[in-house]
């Protein structure tokens, strides 16, 4: 879906402003025009390069703070091999770019507390604005920075003029997002609706503001966290918390780190969207920092060579765990909780292996699906499968006669597709669906029509009951 938006130079998107992520799309659209390799690979590289910058920033932050290489290396490797981070570095997504900017913000905040140079706060303001233009997750650290600056003003460690410059730079950094907000207010004349879209998207306000929690979600959340740190090094998290109060540290900076850790955890833990595992990524950044700090604390008490060997060895353990996970899940007859009807996708490998090198399932599905349908056919696809079909059709020129329809995106000039138009449409064209599962196929089709298997698709036919 992201590749589809990039192909169409779509900076705003179609799911509400909170899901627009304009700065990421501006960079990815720029990458699209680099004449090197295939389009999809070029835009995927934006996430991969941003992830590399994020890991470098993690190392730099901990190294500047603690002055030692081992804690910095462990923190950087821990983040790099965290399942969610690695997974989003392997596909085109917004999270790694946000992570790179967020860690750069922490570097600037750290440098300010060490040097009292106000230019570091200027950079913090600009980076915070850029982060907002990438993802609204940036609003959480922004809240902590506001509290930090308020205390600086109260203690007269910062003047109002400097604050004005910081605010101005934050506004400049967030201009891509602010432009979309202003444009939508002008077009719709609905200020409240536009601001709600900017904060929550089209239909996620309930999930963002959720305050209830089920035992099932709590259990899944703890499993997410455990799967991201399947190593004894995670125990160093406790040592890191202790070290926060033992190392020499600006009080305000310590409070920001504690506040970020708590807020990131609470936000993700009570979030209820299906892909909420991705929203733990900011919390995983803080865990990686605290693990590095725990290594620093232990360096003061044990043999450094032995410690270095152990923690670096343990930090690489997640690779083996991820590699073995699909086989273990299969042998233990566990269910990863995802749908199992996506052609050419082994669910266990797809979700449990964070790397995506060599995965061509989406391409194979789109090529075969478009190749097997009749002339001028209609394919109804769900939100998972519509992107590959549209991208193959429009970016690669495959089967322009076929009309692809979904609940979110449709082919150009797609016919009306509802229960009133269905009978005539079925008389004029062959109609196929990717899935016959409730939620992935319209209810009116499941209730009133039958299906015949057609390769990896299902062809819709009149029901014998209707006859």
What does this structure look like?
With 467 residues, the protein is mostly helical. The chain has 2 domains: 2-315, no CATH class; 361-462, no CATH class. 62% of the residues lie in helices and 4% in strands. It contains 23 helices and 5 strands. It has a 5-stranded mixed beta sheet. Helix 21 (386-395) links the parallel strand 1 (378-380) and strand 2 (403-405). Helix 6 (95-115) packs antiparallel against helix 7. The longest helix has 28 residues, at 39-66. 40% of the residues are buried.
* Main beta sheet: 5 strands, mixed
Structural class estimated from helices and strands: mainly alpha
Percent strand equals under 5%
Number of domains: 2
Distance between the termini: 39 Å
Key features of this structure:
single chain; 467 residues; mainly alpha; 5-stranded mixed β-sheet
Helix and strand layout, with pairings?
Layout: H1 2-7, H2 22-32, H3 39-66, H4 69-81, H5 83-89, H6 95-115, H7 118-134, H8 139-154, H9 160-173, H10 175-188, H11 191-200, H12 205-208, H13 215-228, H14 236-244, H15 251-269, H16 281-299, H17 304-315, H18 317-331, H19 347-352, H20 361-372, E1 378-380, H21 386-395, E2 403-405, H22 422-428, E3 431-433, H23 443-448, E4 449-454, E5 457-462
Parallel strand pairs: 1-2, 1-3
Antiparallel strand pairs: 3-5, 4-5
Helix pairs in contact: 2-3, 2-7, 3-4, 3-5, 3-6, 4-16, 4-17, 6-7, 7-9, 7-10, 8-15, 10-11, 14-16, 15-16, 20-21
């Amino acid at each position: 879906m992201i590749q589809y938006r990039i192909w169409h130079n779509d900076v705003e998107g179609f799911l509400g402003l909170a899901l627009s992520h304009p700065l990421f799309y501006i960079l990815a659209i720029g990458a699209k025009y680099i004449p090197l390799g295939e389009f999809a690979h070029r835009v995927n590289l934006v996430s991969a390069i941003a992830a590399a910058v994020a890991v470098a920033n993690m190392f730099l932050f901990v190294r500047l703070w603690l002055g030692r290489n081992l804690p910095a290396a462990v923190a950087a490797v821990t983040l790099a091999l965290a399942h969610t981070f690695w997974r989003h570095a392997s596909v085109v997504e917004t999270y790694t770019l946000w992570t790179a900017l967020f860690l750069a913000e922490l570097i600037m905040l750290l440098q300010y507390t060490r040097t009292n140079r106000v230019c570091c706060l200027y950079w913090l303001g600009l980076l915070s604005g850029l982060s907002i233009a990438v993802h609204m997750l940036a609003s959480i650290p922004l809240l902590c920075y506001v509290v930090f600056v308020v205390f600086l003003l109260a203690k007269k460690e910062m003047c109002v003029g400097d604050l004005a410059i910081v605010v101005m730079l934050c506004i400049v950094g967030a201009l891509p997002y602010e432009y979309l907000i202003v444009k939508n207010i002008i077009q719709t004349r609905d200020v409240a609706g536009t601001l709600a879209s900017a904060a929550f998207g089209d239909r996620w306000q309930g999930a963002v503001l959720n305050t209830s929690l089920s035992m099932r979600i709590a259990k899944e959340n703890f499993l997410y966290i455990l799967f991201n740190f399947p190593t004894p090094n995670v125990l160093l998290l406790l040592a890191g918390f202790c070290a926060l109060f033992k190392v020499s540290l600006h009080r305000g900076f310590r409070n920001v780190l504690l506040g970020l850790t708590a807020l990131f955890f609470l936000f993700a833990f009570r979030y209820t969207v299906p892909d909420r595992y991705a929203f733990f990524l900011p919390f995983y950044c803080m865990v990686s920092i605290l693990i590095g700090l725990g290594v620093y604390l232990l360096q003061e008490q044990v043999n450094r060579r032995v410690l270095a060997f152990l923690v670096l060895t343990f930090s690489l353990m997640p690779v083996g765990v991820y590699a073995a996970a699909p086989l273990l899940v299969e042998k233990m007859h566990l269910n990863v909780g995802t749908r199992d009807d996506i052609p050419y996708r082994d669910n266990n490998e797809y979700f449990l292996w964070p790397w995506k090198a060599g995965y061509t399932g989406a391409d194979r599905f789109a090529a075969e699906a478009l190749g097997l349908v009749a002339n001028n056919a209609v394919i109804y696809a769900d939100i998972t499968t519509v992107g590959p079909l549209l991208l193959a059709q429009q970016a690669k020129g495959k089967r322009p006669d076929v009309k692809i329809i979904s609940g979110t995106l449709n082919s150009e000039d797609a016919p009306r597709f509802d229960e009133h138009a269905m009978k005539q449409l079925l008389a004029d064209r062959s109609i196929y669906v990717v899935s016959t599962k409730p939620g992935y196929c319209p209810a009116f089709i499941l209730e009133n029509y039958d299906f015949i298997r057609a390769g990896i698709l299902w062809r819709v036919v009149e029901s014998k009951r209707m006859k």
